[in-house]
């Protein structure tokens, strides 16, 4: 019996059944400058892929995958990250070309660049959490 490795089937297995460990989505307002990079854990290895059919791995850790990918981003109209990494860890593994005041979304929370490689939680000054009833 001759069994050949089916790379497409393996990619499907990793992308559909692997545990999503990391994703970063970016949208700079044009079709040419948007996309998502994912890193899934499948078995004891980490695998990176995107919607452009790029696929890489195995990596021994999330850190190894991110270091190999050498991701670089400029905060744009939309930059969303989903990860268990802390913002400090994220800044060590992904290069952001950001200026003071730029925003990034990490796990559905807004963060603002306040200096080189430094983030702080962002609270919109126009966002009022006023639970009081309007007066008649």
Task: Describe what you observe in this structure.
- By secondary structure, this protein is of the alpha+beta class.
- The strands form 2 sheets. An 8-stranded mixed sheet has the order 4-3-2-1-6-8-9-10, with helices on both faces. A two-stranded parallel sheet has the order 5-7.
- It has helices spanning 7-17, 62-69, 87-93, and strands at residues 19-27, 34-42, 45-50, 55-59, 72-73, 78-83, 95-96, 103-106, 109-115, 118-121.
- The radius of gyration is 19 Å and the shape is elongated.
Summarize the structure.
Helix content is 19%, strand content 40%. The protein has 136 residues and is α+β, with helices and mostly antiparallel strands.
**SS-based class:** alpha+beta
Total of helices: 3
**Shape estimate:** elongated
| Total beta-strand segments | 10
Characterize the main sheet: 8 strands, mixed
Helix-strand pattern: HEEEEHEEHEEEE
**Mean pLDDT figure:** 84
Beta content comes to 35-45%
Percent helix among the residues? 10-25%
Could you tell me the radius of gyration in angstroms?
Answer: 19 Å
Search tags:
two-stranded parallel sheet; alpha+beta; 136 residues; eight-stranded mixed beta sheet; 19% helix
Topology (SSEs and partners):
Blueprint: H1 7-17, E1 19-27, E2 34-42, E3 45-50, E4 55-59, H2 62-69, E5 72-73, E6 78-83, H3 87-93, E7 95-96, E8 103-106, E9 109-115, E10 118-121
Parallel strand pairs: 5-7, 6-8
Antiparallel strand pairs: 1-2, 1-6, 2-3, 3-4, 8-9, 9-10
């Amino acid at each position: 019996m001759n069994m050949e490795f089916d790379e497409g089937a393996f990619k499907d297995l990793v992308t559909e059944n692997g545990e999503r460990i990391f994703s970063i989505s970016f949208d700079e307002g044009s079709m040419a400058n948007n996309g998502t990079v994912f890193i899934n854990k499948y078995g004891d290895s980490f695998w990176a892929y995107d919607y452009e059919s790029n696929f890489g791995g195995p990596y021994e850790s999330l850190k190894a995958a991110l270091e190999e990918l050498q991701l670089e981003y400029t905060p744009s109209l939309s930059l969303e990250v989903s990860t268990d990494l802390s913002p400090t860890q994220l800044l060590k593994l992904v290069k952001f070309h950001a200026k003071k005041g730029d925003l990034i979304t990490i796990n559905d929370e807004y963060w603002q660049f306040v200096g080189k490689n430094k983030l702080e939680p962002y609270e919109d000054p126009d966002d009022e959490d006023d639970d009081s009833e309007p007066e008649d």
